[in-house]
Design a protein that fits this description.
It comes from Streptomyces sp. Y1. By secondary structure, this protein is an alpha+beta fold. The chain has two helices and eleven strands; from the N terminus they run αββαβββββββββ.
């Protein structure tokens, strides 16, 4: 038989263990970059980059160029530098639409990058972009699979004259 004092300690330690496990699980599923957010074309267009050297230029006419892609999406199978590519908005996460929209989307929380190979690269590739927002503003998480997440140093943030 377990004494009252020992039983009380076991219950407290059990509660501490369960609480610690719950905190670990909550932290493990938190994604860098904040929550998914819908971005309008005017906010998406421009230069984006991360501190590891990835640079992405998104133009209003739906063209893109990117360098250092491997610094944002390791082991992606795409060329590291792409001078020709296109982008398009995808249906926002949770959308119930089953057919293509009658008009092109003007904003979304997801973007598709179709990257054309430079000379000497065997194939084109596609990169999925999750748009997120945190206290620092919008950020882009480039992944090969929509279920993947980004580490903080992989996130692309809008670049301008002040932040390079």
């Amino acid at each position: 038989m377990v004494s009252g004092t020992r039983a009380g300690r076991l219950v407290r330690w059990g509660a501490v263990a369960v609480g610690g496990l719950a905190l670990y699980a909550a932290c493990a599923v938190m994604e860098a970059g904040g929550d998914r957010a819908v971005i309008e074309q005017a906010d998406l267009v421009g230069d984006w980059g991360n501190r590891d050297g990835t640079r992405l230029h998104i133009a209003g006419e739906h063209s893109v160029s990117i360098s250092g892609l491997d610094q944002a999406v390791p082991d992606n199978g795409c060329p590291m530098t792409v001078s020709v590519g296109t982008w398009s908005f995808l249906e926002p996460k949770g959308s119930r639409r089953t057919s293509p929209p009658p008009e092109p989307l003007t904003g979304s929380d997801a973007v598709d990058l179709e990257l054309k190979p430079d000379v000497g690269y065997p194939r084109a590739c596609s990169v999925f972009v999750k748009v997120q927002r945190d206290d620092d503003g919008y950020d882009l998480c480039l992944v090969m699979d929509p279920d993947q997440t980004c580490m903080d140093d992989e996130l692309l943030r809008k670049r301008g004259p002040r932040n390079g």
